[in-house]
Amino acid sequence: MKLTLHVWRQKRANEPGRMARYDMDDASPDMSFLEMLDVLNEKLIAKGEDPVAFDHDCREGICGACGMVINGIPHGPKRATTACQLHMRSFKDGDEVWIEPWRAKAFPVVKDLVVDRGAFDRVIAAGGFISAATGTAVDGSAIPIPKTISDRAMDAAACIGCGACVASCPNGSAMLFVAAKVAHLGLLPQGQSERHERVRSMVAQMDREGFGACTNAGECEAVCPKEITLENIARMNRDYLRAVLGERPEAIGSGGP
Ligand code: SF4
Ligand code: FES
């Protein structure tokens, strides 16, 4: 496959960047997108040029490191697929491919396609855990949990913290990410004792980090590689209201678990 790549090049955070054009004439449809970038980098190194910096780790869709915007869409054109799991067969011979870093105020560019997603770590540190001493591992069925609830908690726990939701949002909002983290603990019995404190702290940290507000654009759900749903945001908003207003059902509505 022959491709024309346009890649965002930026040496460091405080320097302006630019799109650089590269001709790629030997991409295979069976390569992953990151393998295609590896080949590009080998060519650049052979020519004595600086390789394109990009984040990656697992390359199997579970770590969330590999975020980049491909042809205007975070993680590229294939739904529910991380950039590392995207294959070149999703493109056509002769295509032009535009590759950029996440664009969001709270994710400053470090170099080329690499952004600093430390803001997510600080949101997690603000409350994305349970602090109860767990002792030794308990039997899996010691605490009965309805299947519908455990399924919803597991679906929320699938969030890999990649940041595509933020990059796609016109407001640079992190609501889908934070809501997924709030939901996966808040739905389970083990997460109840800190449920309200957790949502309050995590939302406060999210605001301190400079993420925007949610206006229900829905772009986050559309690009999320783990198909985290907007329902989690509604649930987080209900939990947050409970946390700041106290348990006043008439002010909040029924809410549910
Ligand atoms: S909610 Fe989806 S898009 Fe956002 S960080 Fe989690 S996995 Fe990535
Ligand atoms: S490199 Fe881990 S999800 Fe892509």
The counted number of beta strands is 7
Alpha-carbon distance between the two ends: 51 Å
Q: Which ligands are bound? A: iron/sulfur cluster, FE2/S2 (inorganic) cluster
Shape: elongated
**Average pLDDT reading:** 94
Biggest sheet layout: 5 strands, mixed
C-alpha-based Rg, rounded: 21 Å
The helical percent reads: 25-40%
Q: Going across the major beta sheet, what is the strand order?
A: 2-1-5-3-4
Give the helix tally: 9
Order of helices and strands: EEHEEEEEHHHHHHHH
Instruction: Give the percentage of residues in beta strands.
Output: 5-15%
| Low-confidence residue ranges | 251-255
Secondary-structure topology with pairs:
Elements lengths: L2 E7 L8 E7 L8 H14 L22 E2 L2 E2 L21 E5 L8 E3 L2 E2 L2 H8 L21 H11 L6 H5 L6 H12 L8 H14 L10 H5 L7 H15 L3 H4 L5
This protein binds iron/sulfur cluster and FE2/S2 (inorganic) cluster.
The site of FE2/S2 (inorganic) cluster has 13 residues, from loops.
Structure overview:
This protein is an alpha+beta fold and 257 residues long. It has a 5-stranded mixed sheet with strand order 2-1-5-3-4. A hairpin with a 2-residue loop joins strand 6 and strand 7. Helix 2 runs antiparallel to helix 6 and helix 5 packs across helix 8. The site of FE2/S2 (inorganic) cluster has 13 residues, from loops. Iron/sulfur cluster (SF4) binds next to helix 4 and helix 5.
Question: What does this entry show, briefly?
Answer:
With 257 residues, this protein is an alpha+beta fold. Helix content is 34%, strand content 11%. A five-stranded mixed beta sheet has the order 2-1-5-3-4.
